[in-house]
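Q: Please design a sequence for this.
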């Protein structure tokens, strides 16, 4: 028991365990792997599996998350968790002529070379890319750090073609994204449970000071370090327990969330979808159970198993499922997933959550019939049922907020004693959804104050 507790402590802090047993032949790590699997794999493994001649053949008979990695493969694996890769710093999609640049990451070799969004890479190191898959091209763009790669790319806007040699670098993607949405709703997205996640989320919360509600986005987040999940749970109000763990012996251990110096202030929504997995599900299940947030989206992936990493004598690594995790009260996650409190259509998670946060702030306002399929240059006319005193009317009395986005600036003009015209200062986004709010700040000509504000949903054609 004492050894198991020491092992779990290391597992939860670093998710990395170094095997220290001495073997006669370090050139044969398969014996080390067999011993580790016997001791730590979450289920008993029969001898006919352990007697397979290679580690990779043994892991084929274990669960899908137990794998054997070379030193280089393990480096790539950890880089993925930390949102790092070696390349030129672009996001691409297929194009009949090669691959089209969707994003050029700031500070990357591609940006310094002048490559732009919309450019089409047609050749890499002299090889034509027409008809090649994105995966094949990614392999060609990737490689060892500080190695050269020669690109030929087309700029469709001008018809110009360029050939340049770039040097591959380690590209660090932003793991935590944040912004203040319209209506002062703080939005924080976590792409992976990396070692610095808590630090980055703390910075985001501080920079979004004054938020009247929060949306924490875990969509498409495939997990990461367990210790990072414990830290992230510490940001949510009333959440003190992180998860329940059951090891090979099926004994249960409940682990605590790690309190953070700053927290999300209620109310908080968490967004999940079918690609929210592992550590994302650990956080979602725990926070839901302790009522620290309301979950929006679809049922999560259903990976409730925990892996540990064992470095063998040749520096290769065995990633092994050593336990299964549950919600703090023991609700199963593996092969089940976490169900949202509010189910939404795919792709609508943020819009519905933002809408609900805004409606909460204007509780008591009167809802008017929705406007559907309005043009992008729509102007709005609001007619009251009594004569109004429009003196001092200002644009701040009206809000037009794009759901999932920012507030749209408007001009407000009185047309007559009962009617005002609201004109957005920019075109609305095609297919976008908006909330139009008129606050009760005006008086009727008989000096009676408006009793309640009004709002309506707007969908653009």
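A: Design:
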């Amino acid at each position: 028991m004492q050894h198991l507790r020491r092992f779990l402590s290391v597992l939860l802090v670093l998710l990395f365990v170094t095997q220290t047993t001495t073997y006669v032949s370090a050139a044969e790590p398969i014996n080390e792997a067999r011993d580790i699997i016997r001791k730590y794999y979450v289920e008993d493994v029969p001898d006919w599996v352990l007697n397979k001649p290679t580690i990779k053949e043994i892991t084929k008979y274990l669960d899908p998350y137990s794998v054997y990695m070379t030193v280089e493969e393990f480096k790539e694996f950890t880089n993925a968790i930390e949102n790092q890769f070696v390349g030129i710093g672009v996001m691409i999609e297929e194009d009949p002529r090669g691959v089209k640049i969707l994003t050029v990451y700031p500070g990357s070799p591609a940006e310094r070379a002048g490559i732009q969004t919309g450019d089409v890479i047609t050749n890499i190191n002299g090889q034509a890319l027409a008809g090649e898959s994105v995966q094949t091209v990614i392999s060609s763009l990737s490689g060892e750090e500080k190695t050269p790669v020669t690109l030929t790319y087309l700029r469709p806007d001008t018809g110009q073609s360029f050939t340049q040699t770039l040097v591959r670098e380690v590209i660090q993607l932003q793991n935590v994204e944040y912004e203040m949405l319209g209506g002062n709703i703080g939005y924080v997205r976590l792409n992976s449970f990396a070692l610095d996640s808590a630090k980055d989320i703390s910075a985001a919360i501080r920079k979004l000071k004054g938020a009247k509600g929060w949306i924490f986005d875990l969509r498409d987040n495939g997990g990461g370090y367990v210790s990072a999940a414990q830290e992230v749970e510490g940001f949510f109000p009333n959440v003190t327990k992180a998860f329940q763990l059951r090891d090979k012996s099926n004994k249960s251990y409940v682990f605590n969330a790690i309190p953070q110096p700053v927290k999300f202030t209620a109310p908080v929504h968490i967004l999940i979808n079918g690609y929210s997995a592992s550590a994302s599900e650990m956080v979602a299940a725990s926070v839901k159970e302790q009522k620290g947030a309301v979950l929006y989206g679809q049922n999560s992936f259903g990976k409730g198993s925990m892996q540990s990493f064992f470095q063998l004598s040749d520096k290769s690594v065995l990633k092994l499922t050593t336990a299964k995790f549950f919600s703090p009260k023991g609700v199963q996650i593996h092969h089940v997933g976490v169900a949202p409190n509010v189910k939404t259509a795919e792709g609508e998670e943020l819009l519905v959550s933002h809408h609900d946060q805004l409606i909460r702030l204007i509780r008591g306002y009167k809802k008017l019939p929705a406007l559907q399929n309005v043009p992008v240059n729509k102007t709005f006319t609001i007619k009251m049922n009594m004569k109004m005193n429009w003196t001092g009317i200002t644009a701040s009395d009206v809000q037009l907020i794009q759901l999932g986005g920012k507030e749209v600036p408007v001009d407000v003009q009185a047309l007559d004693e009962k009617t005002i015209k609201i004109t957005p200062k920019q075109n609305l986004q095609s297919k976008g959804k908006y909330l139009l709010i008129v606050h009760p700040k005006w008086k009727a000509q008989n000096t009676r104050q408006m009793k309640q504000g009004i709002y309506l949903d707007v969908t653009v054609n």
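Q: Thanks. Anything notable?
A: Residues 38 and 44 are 7 Å apart (CA to CA). The radius of gyration is 27 Å.
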